[in-house]
Amino acid sequence: MYPPSKNCRGFTLIELLVVIAIIAVLIALLLPAVQAAREAARRSQCVNNMKQLGLAVHNYESANQIMVLQSMFPSGNYPSGMNSGFSTGGASYSWTVALLPQMEQQAIFNAFNFSNYVWDTGVAAANFRANTTVGYTQIGVLLCPSDGTSTRPIEPYGTKSYHCNLGGPGIIQAWSGTIVAPRAWSGNAVGPFGFSGVSDGLSNTGLFSERLIGLPSAQTATVFVNSVNAKRGIFPGPDGGTFNTNDPAKAMAFVQGCKALPGTTKAGNTQHIGHIWTYGYPQFQSNYYNHFGAPNSLSCINANEGGTQNGRWSIATATSNHSGGVNVGFADGSVKFVKDSVNLPTWWALGTRNGGEIVSSDAY
What single Pfam family name could you report for this chain, choosing any that match (predicted)? Predict the structure, then answer.
């Protein structure tokens, strides 16, 4: 064996530390770019999901024109017909069930028993048997990958990130959106309607938006106005007055009152947001959002409705984990990113199907 060369030497400790420091700096510089790229991919998938939902609505409307000779959107919930026997309480099947065939989920649609209840209430009566087989199934297209939650509001039921548009501020005009509670349940003066009923323009009328999934009821006590999960909560708000008053000033006052809640205000509810994807109930804001408060602002219950779980003309906000705004699917099938800073009357106008407002494309 040859003796080691005197010219052969290793790295000194200082050189190693310098190299490690350089690598650490490079990682620190690259990590935000990597995270931004991942979020861009998640946001792109979210947009694609919403486009599929928009296309499903178009196919649903076309199918109804052929089958029943009437142009119509799916109802927000189905308290009659599809689930006779559950027409009084409002707790019923969601628009998501109606759209299953148009989302290439015919097998799951066929497995849904419309003679049974939506979920397990613990009631022993035969017609309260739950649709657990379908309810436990998680539909991938209904989830936004940017949501980030690792829990479901009510395990093991599947949940959803996308909610249908109930309308602008209910204080001004209730049920003014595109996929709303049916007339049999709400007393809404407008019967079934489709694209012909959207006189404000399909490209300026919301159909769906994102809403961050709620948390299990056990975590409600941890959700405050100033907490990281505030957007997943529903807070007791001020008295916003009754619905259909056609008074924008009252609507604006309610929004300002919601924004002014102290940071220590605790959520009255969180688990009802998207809690069961098959479930529809306007009072619990379970599958709806509305164009009342600005995107990513607080959701507040109108004290006039009496309770921390009611919300037909309260603030059910579109929320997301995307930076600076939310994705909104419009009635023409397009998906646009609406900023949190959108002018509030413009946001209200995007929520109504026939309010007569004029909104330019550069206003949001």
Answer: SBP_bac_10
